Amino acid sequence: MAHVNPKAVLEGRIPGRPPVGMIIGMTVSGVCVLVALGLTAAVGGPGFWVGVLLAIIPIPVLVALSLTLDRLEPEPPRALAFSFLWGAGVAVLGALVLNTLGLLYVTVPIFGETEGHFVSATFGAPVIEETLKGAVLFGLLWFRRNEIDGFADGIIYACMVGLGFAMMENITYYMRAYDDGGAQQLTAVFVLRGLIVPLSHPLFTSMTGLGVAYAATHRRWQVAAPLVGLLGAMILHGLWNGGASLGLGGLAVVYVLDFCVLVALITVVFVERRGTVRRIEAYLPMYASTGLVTPQDVRMLRSMPSRRYARRWARRVGGTSAARAMTDYQLAATELALLHKRADRGVADQNWFVTRRDALLNLMALARQAFLRTPPRPGVPGPPWAGEGPSGFGWPGPAPGGPPPGPYAR
Questions:
Q1: Are 347 and 218 in contact (CB under 8 A)?
Q2: Is residue 16 in some structural domain?
């Protein structure tokens, strides 16, 4: 069997071709992060490093929580990292410059000092910040549309952008709290921004993510859907900033609003996941003649617990390489079902559909061979999810020796 790069197949890119655009984007975003940090440090006091530390601490947990929504069909790590860096770098630096210029030359001269800051926070900042954060989502829609398979993907990318932006913004808030009020005020701000409502920016930008995801997976409203999503992000952001400036009552209202949005987004993700499971059950049986999937294998693929069980069994059978092969098989099968979803909606070019389908089937075949070419270990049963029925991962007789080929070789 020809060599296959599983990672390239799953990401839908040409093997061996470096993602030049992604590399340039991450480099530019990283430079913007350094510039933004330098400017913040230059105008700040001794609380700068305290702010940096406290802003970073919750990020691994928040990123992990966000990624749990995307376990059925995880997004490419490079694209997620780029989205995070864009939010932390380009969006933050652009917002810093534009918001400052708006205050100096527009809102304060027109409305005065107090009213000018309120108008800027409630109307100007949401437009500027959500446009800058949403720009990377529009870029993904334009350049990497095929990676966005549904609303969950749009939400995940939006969460990465929002978390990057929030992390950098929180540095400034924590630094000012420490410099102005010491440890007591810093603790209050950290509890408020880092623990109680750490997902406000991801929630705002998720509106843009929903619009972009709709445009990527439907033939209609290609332009209107992303713009409506961006408008929704601006409105939510403006309501938050306006409500937060009205004291405890305003804060309570926007907290409830954010919670309702969070519940709605989680509901969207789980409803869409059920739809993906139904597509797995509907489309994969048509490939039974290839020997790559049986009704028992479809049953394994339709739930996260059964997938984990299959990966644990694979590790017992053939160690780390077999577990990796099982993971690739599961992801390729899910991508195959989502590919048919695109075709049903008329957003998949026929030639691309055939090429993509064959690449995914080849990857599934390679992963299956990693088992069939590995002698079963004594005492390890066949695929436990199959019972007495057939499975593409069963041994059809004495298993031939020798290491599995390609990327699964140990």
A1: yes
A2: yes
